[in-house]
Amino acid sequence: MTPSPELRKLIDQLLAEGGLGKVETSRLEELLKAPAAMRYYTEVMAQEAMMAEALEGIEGTAKTPKIVRFPVKAATLAAAACVVFTLGFFSGRDNAESVLMPVKKHQSVQVTGLMGVEWGDAGAPQFTSGSVTAERVAFHTGLVELTYASGVRVTLEGPADFSVTDATSGNLASGKLVAYVPPGAEGFTVDYAQGKVVDLGTEFAMDVSGRQAEVGVFDGEIELHLPGDKPRSLFQDQAVIHREGLENRLRAVPLDREKFVRRMPARDFRWEVTSAGTRELEFDVSHLIWKPSDYRAIFKWMEGRDAIIIRNVELRRDGRAVSADTHTGVTGNLKLVSANVFGLDVKPGDFERGRWTLHVTVETYPRDDWASDRTVPVASVGLLQFEEGLVSTATASDFIGRWSYYNLGSQYVREFLPDGQVRLFVNGEERPAAFRGSYWEVSDGVLRVGVPSSPGVHERHALRDRNTLIFMSNPYGNATRVVDP
Questions:
Q1: Whole-model pTM?
Q2: How far is it, in rounded angstroms, from Cα 260 to Cα 204?
Q3: What's the CA angle centered on 443, arms 440 and 448, to 5 degrees?
Q4: Which of 34, 192, 432, 464 has the fewest CB atoms in 10 Å of its CB?
Q5: How many structural domains is the chain composed of?
């Protein structure tokens, strides 16, 4: 498992001298209900417990034991898990592997990002219980991000074919790859048809096509292993092209940093309106359009006293209009949100790689006090969220479950029940009155639910993917699915 930043932070706090407070303890217990999170937790605690023994004999090392305040509910589960962990650790390699990795090798590798993907035959990952695991990914277009349990992050650009061989390696049959290897995961290896790359603590790139492979180093150092030759070291900013069968099979080339996608690009673009009147906004969305598809532009207000009116949303490629949605929408506070989703469909005959830009005409929404108070500055700030996938095709079953997000230091969980009801939890405590009497429904991929305190007002939600919930009408960050054990 790749632990979430939240889980890592809570365990770090637990191991620190101050320990955890009541709210943090409750949240950690909630996270540890997931088996993968519990496995990570017990491994960390087992390592912590064995640290003193490992340090014995090292001159100058303190031997003072560390007192850890374990969450009460988690302690019982963790104790049982630690017994299994310890038995596996000390009873030999074969048995240890059967205990520590009771699942298939590929299940330690999660698909943590997808964008514009068109899958090849038998190349799609497995989607189960809200999580996505991968043994092989083969796809024609788009980007796929894989994260190993060690923290290694692999970003692939299609067309590509990559297989997970074990917890510390993979095989790139074709395509572009960028691997980020964090401290502690050195030795990560990527094989290709005519050689392999061994990491020595770095970020490196590969482009494999036919009998040729290009290998470059963004940061750190790698070893390139070729048939019948000793390992060759490559350092930061160095790159080579390898083609077996030529007299000079290696050729040094400049590292082309622009050729590779190093991280999954953001789908969110900030916009700001600070004066009255009409103007056109432009957003470069080239990195988000990888194939013909149904794209959606969501304009979400985040702060400021003014709402904005949105018109004439147009998607252009190299300056030429490809798709447009000319309806009028409004985005502002919860009471001033309507029709703020715009459909921009790119047909197969209209798709080419190029510079794709989104153009939109906006103006400030009339204010009640506009005539009497002209001194108050116009202020409206928000996000354009450019989406593709479940945002337009989600059904009611895709929304059912619990979704977690943070706002102003508090942790919230919304639960959409199959019968249409909604539950809200704040820092682990249920707020029964929050959505009493409200029922949710889904139409055209958008979930609508009434707000009891404001008759006639509805919240709107969409899905970026199976595990990401977008607040279309609230100034909150995206929520993530809470996966049950």
A1: 0.67
A2: 10
A3: 30
A4: 432
A5: 4
